[in-house]
């Protein structure tokens, strides 16, 4: 059983919550979201917010918070082999009330199908709030180019940024 090691990233001004499934091995080692150098999350966010690509954790944190975003994951703990979402078992969900009670979250998005599936199973029954599934920024989602990801994410997030 691995416990999620990264606290949620949000502020009272956050309007959009983006949820992954569970941090990759690289993210767990780094202690921050989307730490694998091949994950396109930071490129997508910097392009849709028209801000420079962040390099450090502090720059990433600033980009998220200054854009009115919040980050966390659906899973609080689970059994997982490496970084493989398909291997996830024995899930305990995160309690999103820590964010939802503190920030004016107007929309919830999931980064990929696995986080959407887990959200529907474990969190939707608790919150009653739907989440929109965005295409995964993971390098495993090789059928989506960076340009396609940026376009899809921009369309969904544009009303909130």
Structure notes:
There is one protein chain. With 161 residues, the protein is of the alpha/beta class. It has a single domain (2-157), classed as 3-Layer(aba) Sandwich (Uracil-DNA Glycosylase, subunit E), CATH 3.40.470.10. The chain is 35% helix and 19% strand. The chain contains six helices and seven strands. The protein has a four-stranded parallel β-sheet. Strand 6 (107-111), helix 5 (113-127) and strand 7 (132-134) form a beta-alpha-beta unit. Helix 2 crosses helix 6. The longest helix has 15 residues, at 113-127. It is globular, with a radius of gyration of 14 Å. The model has no long low-confidence stretch (mean pLDDT 95).
Secondary structure: helix percent: 25-40%
SS-derived structural category: alpha/beta
CATH topology: Uracil-DNA Glycosylase, subunit E
Q: Domain count, please report it.
A: 1
Q: Supply the CATH architecture.
A: 3-Layer(aba) Sandwich
What coarse outline follows from CA principal-axis ratios?
Answer: globular
Name of the CATH superfamily:
Uracil-DNA glycosylase-like domain
Q: What's the overall average pLDDT, rounded?
A: 95
**Based on DSSP secondary structure assignment, what is the total number of beta strands?**
7
Q: What is the CATH first-level class name?
A: Alpha Beta
H/E element sequence:
EEHHHEEEHEHEH
Radius of gyration: 14 Å
Helix run count = 6
What are the low-pLDDT stretches, counting only 5+ consecutive residues below 50?
A: none
**What share of residues are in beta strands?**
15-25%
Taking strands numbered 1, 2, ... along the chain, how are they ordered across the largest sheet?
Answer: 3-2-6-7
Biggest β-sheet, characterized?
4 strands, parallel
Instruction: Give the CA-CA distance, first to last residue.
Output: 37 Å
Oligomer: single chain
